[in-house]
Amino acid sequence: MFELHPKLFADTILVADWQLSRVLLMNERTYPWLILVPRRANVAEIGDLDAADRALLIEEIARLSDIVRARLSPDRINVAALGNVVPQLHVHVIARFRDDPVWPRPVWGALPPVPYDAEDLMRRVEEWRAVLG
């Protein structure tokens, strides 16, 4: 049975459930940051998915990247599946801009996280839900 890892549960807000993945918004206002989590139990690596789910995950990554690009016009979209802290397979899709505070370095550990205030968080979640379904 699929269960979201406690760290992802604590750091994100549910936006949508797609065919394979749960789409989450990272509670970090510095960067527009979404996460795809395949709703499969005991999956740590992309290679742990069967061939059909691997293909679907790649399509969902491309779909989310296309939506982020169309909505925000970032200079770059970073896509990563690290798993060093959270072993559950999850894929980060982060809009990056040349004027963000750590460009061009990776976002992980560069600055302390800055969560959204409650009102802004709910507004962002609703905006993403409107475009992601």
Shape: globular
Q: Can you tell me the CATH superfamily?
A: HIT-like
CATH class categorisation: Alpha Beta
Rg from Cα:
14 Å
Structural class: alpha+beta
- % residues in beta strands: 15-25%
Which stretches of 5+ consecutive residues score pLDDT under 50? none
Lateral arrangement of strands in the main beta sheet: 1-2-3-5-4
Question: Mean of residue pLDDT?
Answer: 97
Major sheet size, sense and barrel closure: 5 strands, antiparallel
Organism: Magnetospirillum molischianum DSM 120
GO molecular function, one term: catalytic activity
Domain HIT: 34-103
Protein name: HIT domain-containing protein
Quick take:
Helix content is 32%, strand content 22%.
Q: Could you characterize the architecture of this molecule?
A:
With 133 residues, the chain is an alpha+beta fold. The chain has a single domain (6-132), classed as HIT family, subunit A, CATH 3.30.428.10. It has three helices and five strands; from the N terminus they run H-E-E-E-H-E-E-H. The protein has a five-stranded antiparallel β-sheet. 22% of the residues are buried. The model has no long low-confidence stretch (mean pLDDT 97).
